[in-house]
């Protein structure tokens, strides 16, 4: 059995986990910076890097102590190498390199999407190939997962990621940061059909997404109301939130099920922070037909290091180790794309 110490610092969560043989999560520690960034309405890269620097040592120590393990029992160090914020990634990558060198164990670099994709294996038996809907704050994509590490990118957002749309719309509605959970909460008291916000279906055979039109439509609607001196009631805010959430989830779920049907894939795995959204899950379930739809528990949907530890184990088995010359790659492509 190999205990992998995994580190994730691509955005605003400093996370460390110990995962044994890709399945047993011995610890999963997440230090969120949400409160720090909340006052600015979004992630401030400089603040993120500095906070990672302050948090990384205590977070790793906590991950080890929660797992009741010492450094000597760690067989490999895994880290998110990209994509993400350059300064934020560098903190995790530099720390992981130093630790792997000090412990004299393999270093395993993990693509952030591969981490999100691997989170489904923690709680589900999944057979390849399957369709993955990767929806987070930084990325939205439809991916055919062929095997561990072999992915075919079918489509992605041409502008804002789905989580980014949630965050930006929540911000203009004054709902706070992070916007996804806040908008979902506000939407609970609203009517999803109160506003018919635009859905960008794009070409009939396109698996790409676009959410910037929706964001502009919400903003224009709010500006019109505000310019006429109208003060939004809580119910009106809830209606806008519910209608915007509906527009995002409608497109995501319809495209994912359509793609699975066209490619003959029997399983759809929804991963990334937005996979925690209950309305998205509900619509996918309603539309699934014979397709099996799965998602990780909310804790494994949003950024965490356990998912990096799972992906790393599959790389460990294939001997896919990185050299100590590893660098962070803010724009890293989902490698092994076929
Ligand atoms: O995967 P993640 O933690 O970080 C990135 O890789 O970006 O995803 C964060 C994104 C944020 O945009 C957040 O607002 C969104 O996921 N999110 C949600 C929900 N929980 C998190 N969006 C909609 N509904 C939620 N319940
Ligand atoms: Zn993520």
Write structural notes for this entry:
This protein has 338 residues and is of the alpha/beta class. The chain has helices spanning 34-38, 45-66, 86-103, 112-118, 162-172, 179-187, 212-227, 234-263, 278-287, 298-301, 306-317; strands at residues 3-8, 13-20, 24-32, 76-82, 107-111, 130-135, 140-147, 150-156, 267-271, 292-294. The chain has two domains: 3-117 and 301-318, ATPase, nucleotide binding domain (Nucleotidyltransferase, domain 5), CATH 3.30.420.40; 126-295, Nucleotidyltransferase, domain 5, CATH 3.30.420.40. The protein has eleven helices and ten strands. The strands form two sheets. A five-stranded mixed beta sheet has the order 3-2-1-4-5, with helices on both faces. A five-stranded mixed beta sheet has the order 8-7-6-9-10. Helix 3 (86-103) links the parallel strand 4 (76-82) and strand 5. The longest helix has 30 residues, at 234-263. The structure holds 5'-O-[(R)-(carboxyoxy)(hydroxy)phosphoryl]adenosine and zinc ion.
Give the CATH H-level superfamily of the largest domain: ATPase, nucleotide binding domain
Question: N-to-C SSE series?
Answer: EEEHHEHEHEEEHHHHEHEHH
At CATH level 3, the topology of the largest domain is: Nucleotidyltransferase, domain 5
Number of distinct helices: 11
**Rg from alpha-carbon coordinates:** 20 Å
User: Mind summarizing the main beta sheet?
Assistant: 5 strands, mixed
Low-confidence stretches: none
């Amino acid at each position: 059995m190999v205990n992998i110490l995994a580190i994730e610092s691509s955005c605003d969560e400093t996370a460390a986990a110990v995962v044994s043989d890709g399945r047993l999560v011995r610890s999963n520690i997440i230090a969120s910076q949400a409160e720090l960034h909340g006052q600015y309405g979004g992630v401030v890269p400089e603040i993120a890097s500095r906070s990672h620097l302050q948090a990384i040592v205590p977070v790793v120590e906590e991950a080890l102590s929660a797992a009741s393990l010492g450094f000597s029992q760690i067989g490999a160090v895994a880290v998110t190498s990209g994509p993400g914020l350059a300064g934020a990634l560098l903190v995790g990558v530099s720390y992981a390199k130093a630790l792997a060198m000090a412990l004299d164990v393999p270093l395993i670099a993990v693509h952030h999407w591969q981490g999100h994709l691997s989170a489904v294996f923690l709680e589900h038996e999944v057979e390849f190939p399957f369709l993955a809907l990767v929806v987070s704050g930084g990325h939205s994509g439809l991916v055919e997962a062929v095997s561990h590490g072999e992915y075919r990118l079918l489509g992605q957002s041409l502008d804002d990621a789905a989580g980014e749309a949630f965050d930006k719309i929540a911000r203009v509605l004054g709902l706070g940061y992070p916007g996804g959970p806040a908008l979902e909460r506000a939407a609970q008291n609203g009517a999803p059909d109160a506003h018919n916000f635009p859905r960008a279906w794009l070409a009939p055979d396109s698996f790409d997404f676009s959410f910037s039109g929706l964001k502009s439509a919400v903003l224009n609607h709010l500006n019109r109301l505000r310019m006429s001196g109208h003060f939004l009631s809580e119910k009106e805010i809830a209606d806008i939130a519910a209608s915007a959430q509906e527009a995002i989830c409608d497109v995501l779920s319809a495209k994912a099920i359509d793609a699975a049907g066209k490619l003959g894939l029997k399983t759809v795995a929804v991963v990334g922070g937005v996979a925690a959204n209950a309305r998205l899950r509900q619509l996918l379930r309603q539309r699934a037909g014979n397709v099996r739809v799965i998602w990780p528990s909310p804790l494994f949907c949003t950024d965490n290091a356990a998912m990096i530890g799972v992906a790393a184990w599959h790389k460990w088995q294939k001997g896919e180790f990185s050299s100590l010359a590893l660098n962070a790659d803010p724009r890293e492509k989902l490698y092994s794309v076929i």
